[in-house]
Write a structure and sequence with these properties.
Elements lengths: L5 H14 L5 E2 L11 H9 L13 H12 L10 E4 L2 H11 L3 E6 L3 H9 L4 E5 L10 H13 L4 E7 L11 H13 L3 E5 L15 H4 L4 E6 L12 E4 L3 H14 L5 H11 L3 H27 L12 E2 L13 H9 L6 H10 L3 E2 L1 E2 L12 E4 L8 H9 L7 H18 L8
Parallel strand pairs: 1-10, 3-4, 3-5, 5-6, 6-7
Antiparallel strand pairs: 2-8, 7-8, 9-12, 11-12
Helix pairs in contact: 2-10, 3-10, 4-5, 4-9, 11-15
Bound molecules: pyridoxal-5'-phosphate.
The site of pyridoxal-5'-phosphate has 13 residues, from helix 4.
Enzyme class: transferase
Family: Belongs to the class-I pyridoxal-phosphate-dependent aminotransferase family.
GO molecular function: pyridoxal phosphate binding; transaminase activity
Length: 428
Amino acid sequence: MLTQSATLATNERIQALRANGVPVTHLAFGEAGLPVAPEIAAALAAAAGRNSYGPTAGIPELRAAAAGYFDRRGLPTAPGQIVAGPGSKPLLHALLSVLPGDVVLPRPSWVSYAAQASLLGKEVVWVPVPEGSGGVPDPALLGPALVAARARGLRPGILVLTLPDNPTGALAGASTVRAVCEIAAEHGLMVISDEIYRDLAHEPGSVLSPAEIIPERTVVTTGLSKATALGGWRLGVCRLPEAELTARLIGVASEIWSNPTTPVQVAAAYVLAEPEPVRAFVAAGLGLHRAVVRAAYETVLAAGAGCPAPGGGFYLYPDLEAARGNASSRADRDAAGSGAGLGGAADLAELLLERYRIGVLPGSAFGDDPRGLRFRLATSLLYGDTDEQRWTALRSTDPARLPWIAEALARLGTAVAELTGKGHGDLR
Ligand SMILES: Cc1ncc(COP(=O)(O)O)c(C=O)c1O
């Protein structure tokens, strides 16, 4: 049975704890954590009267703006190649439904890809992500994994890549992306390149899209949820390589969501045209995410965890293997006391929440080995509980030192250091 998405379920659990007065440092949810830019809010408000159903693929001004957005990123695009949907998540589901074959995923990868594959009755072919590959499958293992999957009777047809990546927060380098694309083409795979964090790459311009390498077999998805922090507005777009696939996708969309909310599409057209206020807002957000996630990275490393270096977005994927078997670590003493043991990722996430009041997601939620002691943390909900705090964070030149952010990072450092046995002390 498919249960509620781990991200949404954990978020609701933490919100319930907080509502009961339990102070939880919430690092479990991938919401961008920023206020709404006033110019974007004004664009939405001005379109409130647009209450008619619209074209399934999206209103013409949105499709044109999205085409321009991709053009500016080196991907020449006609408006007819764009389909908009109520978030990129349903677009991904619809794409997985119209593209033939089973789904090849990096292990770990974002929670919903595998869940959507399973909803569609498709099998998942997991391929490990080695340290330093930026969250995409190891090119050396991808080919053999595809051959082995076929030998087991599977039909690998779709490879999903996330650039920059969620959950690892890393970004694959150009040579890795090229190598993976070459193998995908050799094996006849279509690639879905999920580029929802593209504009939050810590070094702007550092993302190489598979659509630049194998354009005829790449679909790119993105949306407004991350760089412009409009997750609840539910608007995503995808860029398709050819007309027949576009027509099939529109067919599915027409039977499920009819069209994305029209006033939100008007605001999205404004966003994707990237006028100066939007560019300034996205740049400020990127600066904030980068500063805080890097501070969190240094915090967990200093506290004895392993962790891939962040390359984009606001996630980290620490590895607390050092906490296992460490006689001086509090985790082990706890485990010895309860007899339960720190058996894997779920135990670790539970311990972090119950003992340290820090909410994270276990690596197993992303398809990772449940015995590993890895978890994903998001720094984006640390920016503030009020819009005033969030604007202050956005405008700060050193946001990691704002008291409410610094305090949360210190709590994280103390907890990780206790678990790894690295002790206390000034970790930041
Ligand atoms: C990798 C990735 N893809 C897609 C999405 C879905 O975004 P939305 O449906 O809000 O566009 C998310 C959201 O967390 C994500 O992290």
